Amino acid sequence: MSDILKGCRDQIDAIDEQLLELINARAALAREIGELKGEGPIYRPEREAQVLRRLLEKNTGPLSAEAVTAIFRSVMSNCRALERELSVAFLGPQGTYSEEAAIKQFGGLNNPKPCMSIDEVFRMVESGNADYAVVPVENSTEGAVGRTLDLLTTTSLHICGEVALPIHHCLLRRRHADGEIRRIYSHAQSLGQCHEWLNLNLGGVERVSTGSNAQAAELAAQDAFAVAIAGRRAADIFGLDILAENIEDDPKNVTRFLVLGKHEAAPSGQDKTSLLLATKNVPGAIVGLLTPLAEHGVDMTELGSRPSKLGIWDYVFFVDIKGHYQDPAVARALHELEQRASMFKILGSYPVAVI
Ligand SMILES: O=C(O)C(=O)C[C@]1(C(=O)O)C=C[C@@H](O)C=C1
């Protein structure tokens, strides 16, 4: 071993010892905070977002912003687990993008609860069988996830966080299979996101929609004439070959997930509030309904609608605004908006996703 290499490794050993001591000191403080919290919620998404934002501001590299957030999310996950282990429900099985989003947000899962459907994910938390839910809400290519929006209209859970997950699809196939490809398995949303690529490269091959991408990977693992569209993680879990990577039509393909729980998130300084609104079905009603936002200088970042299921051409509106509902300007705007709406529900105020 060269002297230079040995010198670097000796320095790394010394730094690791310091890191170990410091991380354990941090963990001991988290455990102390856990005792102070008593019966209150352990998971504080606003504080975790503040910790990450502060470190990102201080980071001078060479580690990337993504690397720094991944490392500190994992540190916080382990500190949090000393306070109490949380269970997180998501659309399973193992290997889905929902699982990836849950791991990203919580820095690792101590007690994962994969579920068969988005309905079951909500139910798990509502019934107290899991602490938090992670559900997909919209994709940059395919739009809103209707089932999640419908369940938000009736749930008692609060949105307490959001996760933005870049989605890079792979074409996966059973190892050593080389015959004709007769079927492509994937979730309908992923088939839609890879539509152009499939037309160009596998035009004419039957597309079979599955409950999840992980299920598609599992089916492809048993079928020598099939391929699946899923993520890298699913390839590892089900032992599949990756035939092609990044096959999504839009390279900036992102899915946004919501974190839901029984507790509200406190203001973090950079928050969003999601609202569910309805108004009388008359011309110009939605414009009038939203006027208080403009009057109080509150930015609307998103406006979507869903059939209300109460009557034909009757809609509810999903509105995202900047700020926390406790921020004074937002509180004033929401108070006025509530007077004008025929339905008004704050689905949650939560920290804006940290990369
Ligand atoms: O500050 C707290 O409330 C903590 O419990 C500490 C800590 C952390 O590790 O920084 C852990 C869990 C919480 O979700 C937020 C932050």
Automatic annotation (TrEMBL):
Its EC number is 4.2.1.51, 5.4.99.5. The record marks 255 as: Essential for prephenate dehydratase activity. GO terms for biological process: chorismate metabolic process; L-phenylalanine biosynthetic process. It is found in: Cytoplasm. Residues 12-39 form a coiled coil. It catalyses: prephenate + H(+) = 3-phenylpyruvate + CO2 + H2O; chorismate = prephenate. The keyword Flavoprotein does not apply. The keyword Electron transport does not apply. Residues 87-262 form the Prephenate dehydratase domain. It comes from the Bacteria. Residues 274-351 form the ACT domain. GO terms for cellular component: cytoplasm. Gene3D superfamilies: 3.30.70.260, Chorismate mutase (1.20.59.10), Periplasmic binding protein-like II (3.40.190.10). Residues 1-87 form the Chorismate mutase domain. One of its GO terms (molecular function) is prephenate dehydratase activity. Pathway: Metabolic intermediate biosynthesis; prephenate biosynthesis; prephenate from chorismate: step 1/1; Amino-acid biosynthesis; L-phenylalanine biosynthesis; phenylpyruvate from prephenate: step 1/1. Its main location: cytoplasm. Catalyzes the Claisen rearrangement of chorismate to prephenate and the decarboxylation/dehydration of prephenate to phenylpyruvate. This is Bifunctional chorismate mutase/prephenate dehydratase. The lineage of its organism: Bacteria, Pseudomonadati, Pseudomonadota, Betaproteobacteria, Nitrosomonadales.
